[in-house]
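Suppose a colleague, Dr. K., hands you the sequence of a protein chain of 178 amino acids and asks what its three-dimensional shape might be. Before reaching for any lab equipment, you can write down a predicted structure in token form. Begin with the sequence itself:
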Amino acid sequence: MKRRSFLLSCLGLVMAGSVPLAWRAYPAPETAILPPGVQADRIVVRKARREMTLWRGGEPFKTYEVALGQGEPGPKRREGDNRTPEGIYRISGRNPNSAYHLSLRISYPEPRDVAAAQARGEPPGSDIMIHGIRNGFGWLGTLHRQLDWTAGCIAVTNAEIEEIWRAVPDGTPIEILP
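The predicted structure, expressed as tokens, is then:
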């Protein structure tokens, strides 16, 4: 029933039980845009809260609601578990031609992740990103946050990833907390 309600919501149909009430216009309005030139020196992701905060000089300056990996709760352990990693990483690159609207690469797996996975006899996985919505589906806007849908990445709206892309230089540390 929850999936049906989500799908109807994606279509903009407001329901009261099984009776359609109205159509809504989507996407929802976005939050205020960061001024040009603002740069983060740290990112903190709180998985339990589904939020990512940009920091500068020890102070938070912008928080985004996010969708995460669709796997079970907990840190990423192996390739294909669909979990978002936990730990301290960095932004190690960017892809303007991503299958999702822009993507910032997270340095997972670090040597500690590789060693832990090898000790378990499993591949650690890779290609963990902060990205927008899959190309062609940008119309979903903030609706994408209704459920965790990524393969372990951190997803924001297309407008948000454009802002983050400008504000987060390569090398920026990212701390991903449970």
